[in-house]
């Protein structure tokens, strides 16, 4: 049977979708090989979130054709969806598949190989169908990502994703629950819910939203943890939190997207909340879950952002006290309103602001982690690593603290262990059994 190699760029959703495509090929007897090997078919799941992501996608497509000039090179996903005309000019690419055919990849590719019929890249602006993918095993041996939603209607001015992913579509609860049961039976203890705009899950359903899904997942035997992907602060209402705290399996780690801590910049970004709204969401969570981790994303150097506005963002970050912050320098994205804004911030200034924000984030992380020194917490073991010639077992707590465990006994992957947290270590905390 033919050999198939995959390469994934971009987000957790893309990673899940690649695993779903692999599952299709494996079930039909195809041999999945490393991307560096000589394969008959190369499938590159592309990303287009930045101009650099486009460039990396093109590089991987060219690398595939160089590895095997006779192999079929397939570009699939967001870059294809947003900029298929650019890819049509690449002689290394044989087949373009958008974001609507990932669920029947084998059929599409086999049809092309037999008759040279190429699929059309469907306009997603009015596309309302959720294209189901399915996995029963994940590449990560301890946690499984489950895609529950696709598309976004927010149209933030810096973001190309609504054009690449289309409008909001939600996966049926029956499909999600069935896949979750199958993964639990296969030994996965932690389920990570992911989507393009997770907070919008179920918006087109009559009376079923994200919190309803969480309540149903809570009842599945074998699942010990349910972790949420990135959320919008507007999701966090008193009613949502009231129901959430009753769910013992839901991890007390919430990644609430911020992007800027200044209201004027949030408005220019077309974010749908204010700093006061954001602060209120954090307070609601911490009131009911005092040990929860609040993490976020931050963009520095957005067009027209002044030094004063940036300092305001730093002050807001410190007032919130995040457990971790992913800091991004604004990257001009062609095809977005922000990319056309005239008041672009210089690279030098963006670098300076990024350095300041990262330092502030590190300080906040230290404060957060110090709260848990000398406490015992449950850790799900994920892997064994060697650091400074010493072996450690590594895993995470429910509130996403990375723990390096010293142990005289062998710890199996995918087992829960109660660990005493001793001191700060590397990017987490050193623990002992």
Q: What series of H and E elements makes up the topology? A: EHEEHEHEHEHEHEHEHEHHEHEHEEEEE
CATH topology name of the largest domain, in short, is pyruvate-formate lyase- activating enzyme
Low-confidence stretches: none
Tally of individual domains? 3
Amino-to-carboxy terminus distance: 48 Å
Strand neighbour order, sheet with most strands: 2-1-3-4-5
- Name the assembly state: single chain
Task: Provide mean pLDDT, rounded.
Answer: 95
The portion of residues assigned to helices is 25-40%
Q: What is the CA-atom radius of gyration, in angstroms?
A: 22 Å
Number of strands: 17
The helix count comes to 12
Largest sheet: 5 strands, parallel
Supply the CATH class of the largest domain: Alpha Beta
- Can you tell me the overall shape? globular
Give the CATH superfamily of the largest domain. tm_1862 like domain
Structural class: alpha/beta
Give the CATH architecture of the largest domain: Alpha-Beta Horseshoe
In what range is the share of β-strand residues?
Answer: 15-25%
């Amino acid at each position: 049977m033919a050999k198939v190699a995959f390469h994934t760029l971009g987000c957790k959703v893309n990673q899940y979708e690649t695993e779903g495509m692999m599952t299709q090929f494996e079930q039909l007897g195809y041999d999945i090989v490393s991307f560096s090997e000589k394969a008959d078919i190369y499938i590159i799941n592309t990303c287009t979130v930045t101009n650099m992501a486009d460039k990396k996608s093109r590089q991987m497509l060219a690398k595939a054709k160089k590895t095997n000039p006779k192999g079929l090179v397939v570009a699939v996903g967001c870059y294809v969806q947003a900029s298929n005309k650019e890819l049509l000019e690449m002689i290394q690419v044989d087949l373009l598949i958008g974001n609507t055919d990932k669920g029947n990849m084998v059929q599409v590719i086999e049809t092309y190989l037999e008759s040279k019929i190429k699929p059309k890249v469907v306009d997603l602006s009015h596309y309302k169908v959720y294209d189901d993918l399915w996995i029963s095993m994940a590449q990560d041996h301890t946690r499984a990502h489950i895609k529950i939603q696709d598309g976004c209607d927010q149209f933030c001015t810096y973001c190309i994703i609504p054009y690449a992913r289309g409008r909001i579509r939600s996966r049926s609860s029956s499909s999600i629950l069935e896949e979750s049961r199958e993964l639990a039976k296969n030994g996965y203890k932690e389920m990570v819910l992911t989507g393009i705009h997770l907070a919008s899950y179920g918006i087109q359903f009559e009376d079923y939203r994200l919190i309803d899904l969480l309540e149903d997942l809570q009842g599945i035997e074998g699942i010990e943890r349910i972790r949420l992907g990135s959320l919008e602060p507007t999701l966090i209402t008193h009613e949502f939190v009231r129901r959430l705290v009753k769910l013992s399996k839901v991890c007390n780690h919430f990644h609430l997207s911020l992007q800027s801590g200044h209201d004027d910049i949030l408005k220019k970004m077309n974010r749908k909340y204010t700093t006061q709204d954001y602060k209120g969401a954090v307070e609601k969570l911490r009131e009911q879950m005092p040990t929860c981790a609040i993490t976020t994303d931050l963009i520095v150097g957005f067009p027209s952002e002044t030094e004063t506005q940036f300092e305001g963002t730093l002050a807001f970050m410190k007032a919130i006290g995040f457990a971790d912050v992913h800091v991004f320098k604004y990257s001009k994205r062609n095809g977005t309103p922000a990319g056309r804004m005239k008041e672009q911030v210089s690279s030098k200034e963006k670098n300076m602001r990024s350095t300041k924000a990262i330092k502030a984030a590190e300080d906040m992380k230290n404060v957060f982690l110090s709260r848990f020194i000398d406490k015992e917490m449950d850790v799900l073991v994920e892997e064994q690593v060697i650091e400074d010639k010493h072996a450690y077992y590594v895993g995470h707590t429910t509130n996403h603290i990375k723990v390096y465990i010293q142990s005289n006994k062998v710890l199996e992957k995918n087992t829960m262990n109660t660990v005493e947290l001793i001191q700060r270590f590397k990017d987490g905390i050193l623990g002992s059994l």
